[in-house]
Amino acid sequence: MLKLFEYTSSQKTLTIAGVRIGGIPGMIPTVVIPSMFYSKDRLVMNAETGDIDRTKTEETLSMLKDLNDRTGLSTMLDVVASSPKAMEKYLTYLVDNSEFPLLIDGSGDFTVNSAGILIARENGFLDRVVLNSLTPDTKEPLLEVVKETGLQNVLLLTFSTAALISVTKRVELADALVHKAQGLGLSNILIDTGVMDLPTLGIACKTQMVIKDKYGYPVGNGAHNAISTWGGLVSKFGSDAKTPALVGANLMPVVLGADFVLVGPAKHAPVIYPSIAMIDTALAGSLMESRMRPEKPHPRYLIG
Q1: Domain holding 135: CATH number?
Q2: How far apart are CA 4 and CA 115, in angstroms?
Q3: Average pLDDT of 229-253?
Q4: Which range of residues forms the domain containing residue 240?
Q5: Does residue 6 lie in a domain region?
Q6: Residue 3 falls within a domain, yes or no?
Q7: Which of 3, 48, 61, 218 is buried deepest, with most CB atoms within 10 A?
Q8: Measured between alpha carbons, how far is residue 106 from residues 83, 114, 128 in Å?
Q9: Distance between CA atoms of residues 117 and 51, nearest Å
Q10: Residue 117 belongs to what H/E stretch?
């Protein structure tokens, strides 16, 4: 049985566009990854062309930057797009108007994901983007784009229908994906253990612990999916239960050692960031007896 936060492999600390991620829980702040421009996002005016409400988008970016600074947490943005043109416009706008690393999230669409990678290379910000994601179903054309462009940052998604309720099979998927990523020359590997609903949140969190112990790569998951698919939440407990449920779901992987969390829509950030910062502070406290102390900036020094 694994002892909590005592790992058999050396824990890797990566740096992506100035953001550090990975290592012993409690030492490096959790990386929070809110989503922007997803389906029905109020910031999007036209999902096909990538037209956005720039005033509201600027307000959202300012809010995230403020939370980043006040909590000591780090931020990446999950940039969701449904067309190549939209992905290109979103990325170029965010590069010019924020300092956050950007996840290219075309929801498995080759044309959208490849457009994001290519526009990043052509405009000189390839080191600032992360492919979200490389999966067991990723086809050769996208792998060729990754290899040809020299992309270094990738999120591996250890999820499939066959591995839905199996930690063992998810770890096997991780084995295959890590091997493939290393073969492509990818140096910065993050691993998302995959959440669809409440039961798979538990499986994903257990999987992240096993994978972190085995490989030492930064791990996490999209815990918010457990709430967005919870059909009985509002009908049984009322709308007031949604916010605490969302916070609780996003805290679970952090408590169990996640290095990052995909937290869902950016509009929820004001309640999620302070909660994760609280857990980071507590985890840092658990290391004091071992005479381990996080470097500044860190929630331990900022939120009290």
Answers
A1: 3.20.20.20
A2: 41
A3: 97
A4: 13-302
A5: no
A6: no
A7: 218
A8: 8, 9, 17
A9: 20
A10: helix 110-122
Angle, vertex CA 68, rays to CA 66 and CA 69, nearest 5:
65
Which pairs from 227-234 meet CB under 8 Å and 24+ separation?
Answer: 227/264, 228/264, 229/196, 229/197, 229/198, 230/197, 230/198
> In one letter, which amino acid is 79?
V
DSSP string, 182-250: HHTT--EEEEE---SSHHHHHHHHHHHHHHHHHH---EEE-TTHHHHT-THHHHHH-GGGHHHHHHHHH
**Percent of the chain at pLDDT above 70?**
99
Within a domain: 4 = no
Q: Number of structural domains, the chain?
A: 1
Query: Has residue 304 got a pLDDT over 90?
Result: no
> Which pLDDT belongs to residue 3?
62
* pTM of this structure: 0.97
Q: List, for residues 137-177, the tens digit of each pLDDT value.
A: 999 999 999 999 999 999 999 999 999 999 999 999 999 99
Q: Are 103 and 78 in contact (CB under 8 A)?
A: yes
What is the Cα–Cα distance from 200 to 195, expressed in whole angstroms? Answer: 5
For tokens 């071992």, the residue is: 290
Domain-located, residue 109 = yes
Strand stretches in the chain, DSSP E: 13-16, 19-22, 31-36, 44-46, 51-52, 74-75, 77-80, 102-105, 129-134, 153-157, 188-192, 219-221, 260-265
The token duo for 300 is 């331990």
In sequence order, the 6+-apart residues with CB closer than 8 A to the CB of 121 are 149, 150, 151
